[in-house]
Write a structure and sequence with these properties.
Arc Repressor Mutant, subunit A, about 70% helix, Tetracycline Repressor, domain 2, mainly alpha, elongated
C-alpha cells in the first residue's frame, strides 16, 4: 500500500471539500487542517489557492467524468452513447452525494473566464461537447457542433436543476436529450 504524498492528500481533500461545500467557502486554513498539511507546505506546492483549485480539477477531473461515458468497446450506437451520458446524470442526481457538476460549480464561483480553474473546467466541458459532436456526426445530423452545444447545455442545466431542487432528475435529462436528438 502506497502512502499518499502531501500533494496527493491536499488534492484529494480539496476535491472533496470544494465539491461538497464550494471553492469560496473552504478557506486555506480549513483545507490544510483537514488534509493534515501545513499552510507552508501547501504554498510550497501551489503558489495560490487559485492554482490549487485548478490543479484539483485537472487531477481529479478524469475520474469525475469517467463514470459518465461508456467504454470505447461498448456495443452502443451513437444515439445510445449520447443517451448513456444523460442516464448516468439522471442516476447520479438521485444520490445524496450529488452536488452538481464540479466544473460548472467552480466556474460559477470564480466568475472569471480567465481564472486558472475556469480554464481547466472549460477544457472538460469542451471534451464533453466534442464527445457529443463526434456521436452526433455518427448519427449524420446536419450540424453536429450545434447539437453538441445544445446537449452540453442540457447536461449543465439538468445538473443545476437537480442541485437547486435537491431531488433526482427522475429521467428528465435523458428525455430532454431524446427530444433534442429527435429534432436533429
Amino acid at each position: 500500500m502506497t502512502v499518499p504524498t502531501t500533494r496527493d492528500r491536499l488534492l484529494r481533500t480539496a476535491a472533496d471539500l470544494f465539491y461538497r461545500e464550494g471553492v469560496a467557502t473552504v478557506g486555506v486554513e480549513r483545507l490544510c487542517q483537514t488534509a493534515g498539511v501545513s499552510k507552508r507546505s501547501m504554498y510550497l506546492l501551489f503558489a495560490t489557492k487559485e492554482d490549487l483549485v485548478a490543479e484539483t480539477l485537472r487531477e481529479h477531473g478524469p475520474e469525475i467524468v469517467a463514470g459518465y461515458f461508456p467504454t470505447a468497446d461498448a456495443d452502443l450506437s451513437p444515439r445510445e452513447r449520447i443517451r448513456y451520458v444523460f442516464e448516468r446524470l439522471d442516476e447520479q442526481s438521485g444520490t445524496p452525494d450529488f452536488h452538481g457538476c464540479p466544473f460548472v460549480n467552480t466556474a460559477v464561483e470564480t466568475r472569471d473566464p480567465d481564472h486558472p480553474a475556469t480554464v481547466v473546467a472549460r477544457g472538460f466541458k469542451d471534451q464533453l461537447a466534442a464527445y457529443f459532436a463526434a456521436q452526433a456526426a455518427g448519427l449524420g445530423v446536419a450540424d453536429p457542433e450545434a447539437l453538441a452545444v445544445q446537449l452540453t447545455m442540457v447536461f449543465d442545466g439538468a445538473a443545476v436543476r437537480a442541485v437547486m431542487r435537491g431531488e433526482s432528475l427522475d429521467g428528465a435529462a435523458a428525455r430532454t436529450a431524446d427530444a433534442l436528438l429527435a429534432a436533429a
